[in-house]
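Budget justification aside, the reviewers requested a transparent look at the raw inputs and outputs of the sequence design task funded under Objective 1. We therefore reproduce one unedited record. The lines immediately below are the structure tokens for a 98-residue chain.
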């Protein structure tokens, strides 16, 4: 499965988790469901981690494809430039995510 597809699936599952959190909360007169609320949050946390990891996996592939497309005659230079740029972007992604 590609990282992009996994990211899409994780976003959909996070939406399901958020909807579950809203559904299982106590509302004027009903008690709600703690187990449903807890499972919805666990679903949300699990798929946010999976989505985060799959997003990090996409950056090197995107830059590799981009540089190989730009520099079709020199694959060694394309690999070096893709490695440099993907490392830089991953550093920024981690800094922003922290």
């Amino acid at each position: 499965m590609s990282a992009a597809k996994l990211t899409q699936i994780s976003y959909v599952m996070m939406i399901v988790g958020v909807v579950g959190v809203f559904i299982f909360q106590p509302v004027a007169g009903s008690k709600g469901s703690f187990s449903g609320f807890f499972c919805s949050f666990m679903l949300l946390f699990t798929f946010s981690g999976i989505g985060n990891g799959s997003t990090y996996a996409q950056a090197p592939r995107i830059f590799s494809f981009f540089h190989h497309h730009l520099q079709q005659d020199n694959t060694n230079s394309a690999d070096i430039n893709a490695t440099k740029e993907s490392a830089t972007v991953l550093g920024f992604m981690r800094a922003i995510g922290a």
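The chain has three helices and no strands. Residues 17 and 41 are 6 Å apart (CA to CA). Computational costs for records of this kind are itemized in the attached budget.
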